[in-house]
Structures are given as structure tokens and as C-alpha cells.
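Q: Given only this backbone (361 positions), what sequence would you predict?
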């Protein structure tokens, strides 16, 4: 009996050590880094040491993060004073608190939060100053929080603080189908008797027509169309394009109207303009977003993985029949399967969703 008891101690010790190793903080985490300024190949998924929690900071296990037009500008090198490359991308995220630094109050481990980060949100873990961390309302998902945080903060400031928009006014909004444009339209639903004119490409109109009083095509003479709707001009112009649209918007204002410039997206062209080509490792999800006609917001979920298609015994024979019936040049079902496997392998790090929140008045 005694010998058996003595023999069990090393096994128990090994078991305890194994449990401690499993529950200890990971030595590495996955993150999306910018390795250089320019094209899409500069964005790579890499392993990095996890961040440590400093005084006044909160360590967040990221469950969802947002992709905004600002991230495209960063990659292109159009943002002043970026961090030294390589660095982790992303400005907003949502997740669970895994640790808190000294001096942090009102936030505890396990809380569900959203955060505005100075870069470094596209990672499994991120450390954020507590003043930029916000508890999630009960029932709000991580994806919803990440899809609306930055866009709605910008939209709220534009509508209520800078724009001071109120009833019986007319407002013209550029890029009406984008994340901020949609957020502006939703917030404006709380203002009665407001004329909201959205400017967007024609192919987006069907998807966003219910969000605006009038919807005009950017590629036609929207200035003349706006003057027909508002002969005296508009009270507020919200412009994220700049360029030629800046002068047009200024000339559409009423006396004492407000022209608000909050972006310069017309300066960005080519592949850098496309949200859907930003992370080509998730092609299937991007195609889904492309089908949505570049409307709304893109969010990334680092925990999700594509669900593999379950193949039954009967389906194997059907697959063989399809393979035999395929025309030359179409590719075999085996090649298609290999392609899906490659996509699934690439998607396991960060999966992309199309989403934007709708607030009902």
C-alpha cells in the first residue's frame, strides 16, 4: 500500500504541471500585421508574443474586430505618423476581459466589452487603456459591437455635435452606402421632419433606398438634382470624398449652412479602394460581401472557422458522377475540394462577416 502511494506522487505532480501549462497564458498569439506600405501582400497573419497588461490597461480576448476605410489608408501609407513596421492593424474590437492592470476600476475579468484601440486590435489578445474600454449592453453580440463602434461614434459626432442637425433641415450625405453613411442615416431617424439626401453609386440604391428621403446617383449631375429638391440649398453637407465634390457641396449650401469634411477617400484609387480584396485569404466571405454590393460594414471574427460540408455515403457517388459529367476545363471535384481546404485553412485565423446595425426610430 505504501509503495503504491509513493509511486502515485510523481504522476499527480506531472498531471498538475500539465494542467498549469494548459491554463497558463499562451506564449504566442495570432495577429494580422502590416509588413510594409502598399499592396495587399503586405498584410500577413503572423505569430506574436501576447501583450502584457500595464498600469491602467485592460487585456481583452478579441472575439470580433472591425475593418474600416481608415485601415485601407494605413496600409497605403496615407496616415501621418504610423507605427514602425511591422505592426498589428485595427482600431476597434469587442471581446472578453482576461486581465486588468493596476489602478483599473469598474472593469473586471470576464466582462464583455468593446474598445477603441490605437492599432493592434486585429489579434487574439490586445491591451487597451481602460478609458477606451466600454461595457456591452446586455444582449449585444460581439459582432454587433464591432460593427458599429467606430462608425457610430463618428456619425454621432457629425450629426449631433459638429453638424447640430435638427428638425426641418435638409442634409446631403456622401458615400451613403458606407458604414458611416448608414450610421448617419440611422441616427437621423431620431430627428423628425428632416430631409436626408444620400449620394451613392446607382448599384447600391436598392439596398439603402429606405434609409434616405431622396437617393441620388453620384455618377450623374447630382448638383442639379439636389437643387430641384432644395431650391434654396441644403443646411448641412457631410463630405468624406473631397476633390471635385468639395466645391460642389460648398456651392449647394444655404447661407450660413455648414460644410463638414471628414475624409478624403477620392484620393485612394485602384486595389486599395476595395474592401473585398483587402484580405484575400477569405475569398469565399469576400464574394459574399461583393454580392452585397459594398454596402455596410465588415467585421472579422478570429474565433470562427468555416463549417466543413458533411459528406454522406450517398453523396460520394454523386460527386463521382458530377466529376465524370464535367466539361473539360471546368476542373474536377477533387480540385474544388482542395481549393476549399486551402480556403478553410486560411480562414481559420480571421473570418469576415458583412454586417451593419439598424436603429429603429
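A: Predicted residues:
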Amino acid at each position: 500500500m505504501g509503495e503504491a502511494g509513493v509511486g502515485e506522487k510523481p504522476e499527480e505532480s506531472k498531471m498538475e504541471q500539465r494542467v498549469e501549462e494548459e491554463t497558463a497564458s499562451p506564449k504566442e498569439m495570432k495577429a494580422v500585421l502590416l509588413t510594409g506600405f502598399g499592396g495587399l501582400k503586405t498584410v500577413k497573419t503572423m505569430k506574436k508574443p501576447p501583450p502584457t497588461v500595464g498600469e491602467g490597461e485592460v487585456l481583452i480576448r478579441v472575439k470580433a474586430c472591425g475593418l474600416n476605410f481608415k485601415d485601407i489608408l494605413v496600409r497605403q501609407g496615407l496616415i501621418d505618423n504610423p507605427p514602425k513596421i511591422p505592426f498589428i492593424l485595427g482600431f476597434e474590437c469587442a471581446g472578453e476581459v482576461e486581465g486588468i492592470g493596476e489602478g483599473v476600476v469598474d472593469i473586471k475579468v470576464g466582462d464583455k466589452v468593446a474598445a477603441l484601440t490605437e492599432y493592434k486590435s486585429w489579434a487574439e489578445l490586445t491591451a487597451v487603456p481602460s478609458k477606451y474600454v466600454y461595457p456591452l449592453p446586455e444582449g449585444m453580440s460581439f459582432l454587433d459591437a464591432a460593427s458599429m463602434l467606430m462608425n457610430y461614434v463618428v456619425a454621432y459626432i457629425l450629426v449631433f455635435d459638429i453638424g447640430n442637425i435638427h428638425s426641418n433641415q435638409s442634409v446631403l450625405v456622401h458615400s451613403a452606402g458606407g458604414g458611416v453613411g448608414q450610421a448617419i442615416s440611422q441616427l437621423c431617424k431620431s430627428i423628425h421632419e428632416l430631409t436626408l439626401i444620400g449620394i451613392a453609386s446607382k448599384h447600391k440604391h436598392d439596398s439603402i433606398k429606405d434609409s434616405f428621403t431622396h437617393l441620388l446617383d453620384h455618377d450623374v449631375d447630382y448638383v442639379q438634382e439636389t437643387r430641384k429638391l432644395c431650391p434654396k440649398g441644403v443646411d448641412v453637407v457631410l463630405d468624406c470624398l473631397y476633390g471635385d465634390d468639395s466645391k460642389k457641396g460648398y456651392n449647394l449650401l444655404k447661407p450660413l449652412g455648414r460644410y463638414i469634411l471628414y475624409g478624403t477617400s477620392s484620393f485612394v484609387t485602384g486595389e486599395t479602394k476595395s474592401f473585398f480584396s483587402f484580405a484575400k485569404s477569405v475569398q469565399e466571405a469576400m464574394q459574399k460581401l461583393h454580392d452585397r454590393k459594398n454596402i455596410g460594414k465588415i467585421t472579422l471574427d478570429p474565433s470562427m472557422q468555416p463549417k466543413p460540408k458533411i459528406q454522406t455515403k450517398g453523396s460520394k457517388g454523386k460527386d463521382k458522377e458530377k466529376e465524370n459529367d464535367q466539361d473539360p476545363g471546368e476542373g474536377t471535384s477533387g480540385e474544388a475540394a482542395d481549393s476549399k481546404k486551402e480556403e478553410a485553412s486560411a480562414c481559420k485565423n480571421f473570418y469576415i462577416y458583412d454586417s451593419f446595425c439598424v436603429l429603429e426610430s
